[in-house]
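Onboarding guide, step 5: your first structure request.
Type a short instruction followed by the sequence, for example:

Predict the 3D structure of this protein.
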Amino acid sequence: MGMNRMRRLIAVFALTVTVGVLAFAQAKPNVVIIATGGTIAGAGADATNSATYQAAKVPVDQLIAGIPQLSAAANVKGEQLFQIASESFKNEHLLTLGKRIAVLVKQNDVDGIVVTHGTDTLEETAYFLNLVIHSEKPIVIVGAMRPGTAMSADGMLNLYNAVTVAGSKDARGKGVLVTMNDEINSGRDVAKAINIKTEAFKSPWGALGMVVEGKNYWFRLPAKRHTVNSEFDIEKINSLPRVEIAYASGNVSDVAYRAFADAGAKAIIHAATGNGSVSNTLVPSLVELRKKGIHIIRSSRVDSGGFVLRNAEQPDDKYDWIVAHDLNPQKARILASVALTSTNDSKELQRIFWEY
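The system replies with C-alpha cells like these:
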C-alpha cells in the first residue's frame, strides 16, 4: 500500500470518528441549569447536619462538576442567576427569572431548562413560571431537603433526574414540572408538605409520574391551562401588583387585613379554615374593604386538598368576593398577582381562578 493511500485512509478514518463524535454530542439534549441558591446549594458544618446548615453557598459550576453522570445525560450549561435562600425570593426575582427563561426557550440550541431553587418558596416559583412562560420545552424546578454535605444528601439525584426530565421529549407540553424524591409533579399542584423529610413535596391530586434510573414513567396529565395555553406572557409583565395573605384562626381579628389594605394591597388572600370560612366578626370588615376596591379571595389553609366552593360558607356573589378553587394561599397569591396585570374585574378574576 502506497504512503499517499495510507494517509488518505487515515484521514478518512479520523474524519469518520470526528463526525461520529459530533453526531453523538448533538444527539444528546442541550439543557441549561439556572441556579438560584437554596438548600441544594447549601453546606453544613458536619455530615450529620441535615437540618442545620447555610443555604446558597455552592456555585452552579461546582454542583454540575459534582455529578459527572450529567455529561452522559445531556450537554449541560450552568448559569448563576441568584444565590439566595428562597424565603428571600421577591416579585422582582420571579420576573427576572421568568424573563431569562423566556429568552432561553426561544434558542434552537436549548432543549430544556432546569432551575435549582430553595424549597421554601419553590412551589410559588414553579406555579408562576407555569402561568407566564409560552413554551412546550420542559422547564423543571428542583431543590433538595438536605445540603450536599449531609449524609444521604438528596440533591445529587434530584438534580440528575431534573436534567434527564428537562432533556426528554416526552416531558414536552406538560407545563412546568418539579422533580424531587424520584417523583414528577406539576408545578401547578405541588406543595411543600413537610420540612424535615426528603419526600417533602406532594400534590393533593397525585404525581404526574416517576423518574426511575433516568427514565420517565407518566401516569396522568395536567388539566388546567398552562404555558403555551396561558393568556399571560412574561414578556408583557414588568411588575406585579401587591397581593397579601392574611392567616385566619380562632379569635381572628381584622388588624392584618386593614394593615394590608392601608399598605396598598390590591387583593387579600383570606387563608381560611375549612372551606374558606370567614368568622362572623370578620365579615363586615372584608365587605367594607371590597367596597373600597380591594379584592377578597377566599382560600383554605388545609394542608392538602383545600377546596373552596363559591357561595358555600359565604355569599360570594352578594359580597363580590372570589374563591381560590383548590389553590393554597401562596399559590392563590401568585395567580392573583399575575391576573391583576391584565384585569381588575372580579368576574374575570373568578374565571381565571377556575381555569388555572
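Each response can be followed by summary notes, for example: Residues 224 and 356 are 5 Å apart (CA to CA).
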